[in-house]
Design goal:
This protein has about 180 residues and is an alpha+beta fold. It has helices spanning about 5-20, 25-35, 40-50, 80-90, 110-120, 140-155; strands at about 50-55, 60-65, 90-95, 100-105, 125-130, 130-135.
């Protein structure tokens, strides 16, 4: 990683820890005040590389740096389910072999990615929207085990500040990615 990128990443970490940053544009403006002129695509890449996620703040969703929990298969800097779920999980329910995980708005992608990284044999795959992850399990019994495990992980990790689920948006558009 270049020295400039390292400095920019450190500045982003500091900004999201010290400020309630509500949008990428607000983060770009704060970086510009500190001498970092970045494009939106560079900032999006930085946010992904740092493992930032949107969590409920005092006045709405804000960017936060999630502290990954160590585990044997973790990639350094990659958020894990045990780190993400206590902060971003709202609920899980399902039928048959399908489970739907509800998250805070903007949080489904990192949860789906962390779930895929776990490589649980009971799961065939995931599809993430904005605040919903569809989990396709191998059997009905596997779905029940997965749902129980997700609820336990959501309750089990050390909680810093418990985010409140954001009010659902009136326009329920879905992205699949």
């Amino acid at each position: 990683m270049s020295p400039a990128k390292t400095r920019r990443h450190q500045a982003i970490r500091t900004l999201v820890q010290q400020h309630q940053v509500a949008s990428q544009e607000e983060l770009r403006a704060l970086l510009a005040e500190r001498g970092f002129d970045v494009t939106q695509s560079t900032l999006s890449r930085d946010i992904s590389e740092l493992g930032l996620a949107r969590v409920a703040g005092e006045t709405g969703a804000v960017w936060a740096l999630l502290e990954p929990t160590p585990r044997a298969t973790a990639v350094p800097g990659e958020p894990t389910l045990s780190a993400l779920l206590p902060q971003l999980f709202a609920s899980v329910e399902g039928t048959g072999v399908l489970s739907v995980i509800r998250t805070l708005r903007g949080s489904a992608q990192p949860i789906a990615e962390a779930l895929d990284t776990e490589r649980w044999p009971e799961i065939l795959g995931t599809i993430a929207g904005d605040d919903t992850v569809l989990v396709i399990c191998r059997t009905d019994a596997a779905r029940l085990r997965i749902e129980r495990q997700l609820r336990e992980l959501a309750r089990g990790a050390v909680r810093r500040a418990t985010p409140r689920p954001l009010a659902p948006s009136t326009a329920r558009s879905r992205r699949v990615g």
